[in-house]
C-alpha cells in the first residue's frame, strides 16, 4: 500500500514501513509469574507457603486482636500441658482447615506448651501428615473417637466437630479427678442443649446435657473471613471449685437413650 505526495511538481511515492506483529500471547505468558497449581499437586513447600499467607491474614485481622484479649483473660490461666487436635480436616484440601491449623500452632506458641501437640482426622492426606511431622506434631495412629483421658491439663482443640465427639471426650474424663483438666475449644454445648430434641441428645451426646450445668464458656469474636471458619466457637472450661462442690450422684446421672 502506498501514498502519493505532491512535492516540487513531482509526485513522490512513499511506501509504508510495516512493523512486525509481535505475539502478545507469548509475551504475556512469559510475564505471568503466577500460575495456578491444584492442591492435589502440592508439595511441602507449596503448603508451607500457603500457611504462611493464611497466618499473615489471620494475625493482621481485627478478629485475632480481639481473640488475643480473650485468650489472655480466659485461656492462659488454664496452663495446659498438652494440646489434642481433633477434626480439623485436611489442611491440604480445605481453606477452613488451613486457618484452624494456623491458629492451633499460634496457641501452642502462645501457651508455651511444655508437653506435646497431637492431631487426628481420618481425612488427613500424606502431605498433611508430612506437614505435621515438620511442625513436631504427633499424629495419633488410631481413631480414639475423642476418648482421650486428660491425666494432665489438656487443651482439646476441636473446631466444628460433631456433637457426639464432644460427648465422647467428656465421657472419657467424666469424674471429679479428670474433668477439671479438660479445656475444649469447640462449638458451644448450649447451642445443642435446649435447641434440639432431648431424646436425640441422650442418644448421640448424653454428656453434653449435664456438662452445660457446670462449664464456663467464653465465645470467640464473631467476624472473620466468611464467618464459617471460627463461627460459634468458644473456650469451655470446668472450674475445679465448681466440680468440688458436686455431689457424687452427679457423675452417675447421665441419661442415655438407646
From TrEMBL:
Pfam families: SRR1 (PF07985). Residues 78-236 form the SRR1-like domain. InterPro entries: SRR1-like (IPR012942), SRR1L (IPR040044). It comes from the Eukaryota. GO terms for cellular component: cytoplasm; nucleus. Belongs to the SRR1 family. This is SRR1-like domain-containing protein. It comes from Mucor plumbeus. The lineage of its organism: Eukaryota, Fungi, Fungi incertae sedis, Mucoromycota, Mucoromycotina.
Amino acid at each position: 500500500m502506498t501514498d502519493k505526495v505532491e512535492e516540487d511538481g513531482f509526485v513522490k511515492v512513499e511506501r509504508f514501513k510495516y512493523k512486525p506483529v509481535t505475539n502478545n500471547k507469548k509475551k504475556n505468558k512469559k510475564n505471568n509469574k503466577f500460575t495456578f497449581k491444584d492442591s492435589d499437586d502440592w508439595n511441602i513447600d507449596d503448603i508451607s507457603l500457603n500457611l504462611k499467607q493464611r497466618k499473615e491474614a489471620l494475625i493482621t485481622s481485627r478478629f485475632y486482636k480481639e481473640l488475643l484479649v480473650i485468650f489472655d483473660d480466659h485461656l492462659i490461666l488454664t496452663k495446659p500441658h498438652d494440646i489434642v487436635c481433633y477434626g480439623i480436616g485436611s489442611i491440604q484440601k480445605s481453606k477452613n482447615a488451613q486457618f484452624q491449623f494456623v491458629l492451633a500452632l499460634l496457641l501452642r506458641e502462645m501457651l508455651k506448651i511444655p508437653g506435646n501437640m497431637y492431631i487426628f482426622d481420618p481425612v488427613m492426606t500424606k502431605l498433611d501428615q508430612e506437614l505435621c511431622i515438620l511442625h513436631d506434631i504427633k499424629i495419633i495412629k488410631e481413631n480414639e473417637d475423642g476418648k482421650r483421658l486428660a491425666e494432665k491439663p489438656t487443651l482439646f482443640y476441636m473446631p466444628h466437630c460433631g456433637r457426639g465427639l464432644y460427648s465422647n471426650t467428656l465421657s472419657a474424663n467424666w469424674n471429679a479427678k479428670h474433668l477439671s483438666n479438660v479445656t475444649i475449644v469447640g462449638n458451644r454445648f448450649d447451642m445443642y442443649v435446649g435447641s434440639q430434641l432431648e431424646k436425640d441428645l441422650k442418644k448421640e451426646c448424653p454428656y453434653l446435657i449435664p456438662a452445660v450445668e457446670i462449664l464456663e464458656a467464653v465465645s470467640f469474636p464473631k467476624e472473620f473471613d466468611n464467618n464459617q471458619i471460627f463461627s460459634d466457637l468458644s473456650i469451655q472450661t470446668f472450674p475445679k471449685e465448681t466440680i468440688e462442690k458436686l455431689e457424687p450422684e452427679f457423675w452417675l446421672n447421665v441419661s442415655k437413650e438407646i
